[in-house]
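Could you join me in thinking about how sequence relates to backbone shape in a protein? We need material for that, and I hope you will provide a protein of your own picking. Once you have written the record down, we can walk along the chain together:

…
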Amino acid sequence: MTTKPPDPRIEKMLEDIEWEVELTKKHIGKDRLDPRVMAAMARVPRHEFVPEESRVYAYDDGPLPIGFGQTVSQPFIVALMTDLLEPDEEDVVLEVGTGSGYQTAVLAELVKKVYSIEIIAELAEKAQERLKRLGYTNVEIKVGDGYYGWPEHAPFDGILVTAAAPDIPPPLIDQLKPGGRLVIPVGEPSGYQTLKVVHKDDEGATRIRDVLGVAFVPLTGNGVGKRRSQHDH
């Protein structure tokens, strides 16, 4: 049996992730990411999740536009957020913001089931088709407002949000299992954003850790709008 030769683009991407980890280790509190996460990053064909004209840049360490004002996050951030979630193979997780489905696929490599919500119907449909074509059978996607989560399938072992919210949506904390983690960028769209990890203990109390300054597209939907208008009064 012949083994497939390593793809130099993927090897370079993994090296870039390791370099970013080294640069940010004081903030993220570790000097290497979980080997399972790195292996998942190596397995997912990132070029399948970006537009044709961007494929030449698919494995570069930067975000790429996917249309509708949305982006696919840089590989380091995808790997870091996945690592911070501490996924287990028996976990059921919620992703808010499917986008192209790249982060969804990385999660699907590591957990039992991924439920993913996307507010832009065309992105959701394309991601569903793409993930199915690539053989991911443990993913379910719906079109909806991710601020409110997916209560029918809650509670979740982990929740990962791929867009910045002005604050942490209470429905997502409610839908987190005791012992679970929520990884979310928090901040205003044009201002400073912080990647946060919310850990819910066995009694249901939460503690929040700030990890790193980040830049994400904003979380959109009625829930975010309502919270903003309440803050304005």
Remarks:
- Helices lie at 8-28, 35-43, 75-85, 102-108, 121-133, 170-174, 222-232.
- The beta strands are 64-67, 70-72, 92-96, 113-118, 139-143, 156-161, 176-187, 193-200, 206-214.
- Confidence is low (pLDDT under 50) at residues 228-233.
- The chain has one domain: 8-232.
